[in-house]
Amino acid sequence: MMEKAFTAAEHYRDPSRPFEYLVLTVRPDQSLAEARRALAEHAEYGKWELHRSRMYIGGMRRYWLRRRVMRVESTIPGQYS
Q: Where do the structural domains in the chain lie, given as residue ranges?
């Protein structure tokens, strides 16, 4: 069984901004192939796109993913007014 590639996943959403962010942190002992596989799954199924990546001293990697916030308005008259 494959271990989780990420030690932490933080989700940020600010209604006043057009994007929401997901920050994924990869442990130094995880392979780059596992990290790529997980990032591809987030991109394909969650509609996330890679915004920024950073590699730290010691081998830890952090990836910032973002996706556009979809705002939906009600089509039912008088509902939620």
A: 6-68
- What phi and psi values does residue 16 have, to the nearest 5 degrees? -85, -10
Confidence bin at 80 (pLDDT 50/70/90): low
Predicted model pTM: 0.70
Rounded distance between C-alpha atoms, residue 39 and residue 63, angstroms: 9
Q: Are 16 and 72 in contact (CB under 8 A)?
A: no
CA distance 8 to 63: 11
Tell me which residue of 49, 81, 45 sits closest to 64, measured CA to CA. Answer: 49
